[in-house]
Amino acid sequence: MGKILDWLDSRFGIKAPHQRFLQRPLPKRLSYLYCLGGVAFTLFLCLLFSGLLLSIHYVPSQDEAFHSVVRITREVRLGWFVRSIHKWSANLLIVFIILHTIRVVVHRAYRPPRELNWLVGAMTLVIAFASGFTGYLLPWDQKAYWATEVGTSMAGTIPLVGKYLLYLVRGGPEVNGVTLIRFYSLHVLWLPLCMGILLWAHFHMVKRQGISGGL
Ligand code: HEM
């Protein structure tokens, strides 16, 4: 086993990064509260994987979206399971990001030099909310339609820019097939891409600055 590992190490370099990772300094009083961010990241990975599987059968069109979701739930093998994983991961992600944020506040880890990481973290929360909102429309049933109708009309009430914002979000004056495609593109491409970039920056700063010492 040792020889195989040595051979792999000489070609692939598995030992060195592993040792560096283990040698990184940690705060003296470490607790399970420091795992909340890691749990949030694991849920994000579950979302990505289950979302990739769902995208094989989902059809983002006005005529087909609803039926494709019914097909995923009733006919596709384990489709109901993958859908449930996606839904539960999305809800739990919000819960764990909020718990992680509370941990950071209680430990006052938002103070310099971590203020930029706090900002980047806050942006991930916005992206997570936006992902939930755009994903809610995709089943294209009555509940989804009216939730989006109400949610987007709130944007329309903003003084001066409201009307333009409403058009931008809906892709026109009302919620229709154009809105569905717009939300689909945001949900499966733009928002996950932004989240990926933000998380890379988040982890990069955690690695560079180390975990704060707590209270
Ligand atoms: C998907 C969202 C997020 C993920 C996956 C994530 C993940 C992580 C992980 C793994 C750590 C290191 C260990 C830990 O403290 O848990 C961390 C640290 C940190 N996070 Fe997040 N985070 C997210 C959102 C946020 C949010 C919303 C904020 C604040 C608004 C935030 C602020 C911070 C700060 C300031 C640190 C450094 C903490 C310290 O050094 O003690 N993060 N994050």
Question: How would you explain this protein's 3D organization?
Answer:
This protein is an all-alpha fold. It has a domain at 31-139 and 195-209: Cytochrome Bc1 Complex, Chain C, CATH 1.20.810. Helices cover 74% and strands 0% of the residues. The protein contains nine helices and no strands. It has helices at residues 2-12, 15-23, 36-57, 65-74, 79-106, 115-137, 142-156, 162-170, 177-209. α6 crosses α7 and α7 packs antiparallel against α8. The radius of gyration is 21 Å and the shape is globular. 22% of the residues are buried. The model has no long low-confidence stretch (mean pLDDT 94). It binds protoporphyrin IX containing FE (HEM).
The bound ligands are: protoporphyrin IX containing FE
Tell me the fraction of residues in β-strands, as a range. Answer: under 5%
In the CATH scheme, what's the topology name of the domain at 31-139 and 195-209?
Cytochrome Bc1 Complex, Chain C
How is the quaternary structure best described?
A: single chain
Overall average residue pLDDT? 94
Unreliable spans: none
In DSSP terms (H or I, runs of 4 or more residues), the helix count works out at 9
In short:
With 215 residues, the chain is mainly α. It contains nine helices and no strands.
Characteristics of this structure?
215 residues, mainly alpha, Cytochrome Bc1 Complex, Chain C, 9 helices, globular, binds protoporphyrin IX containing FE
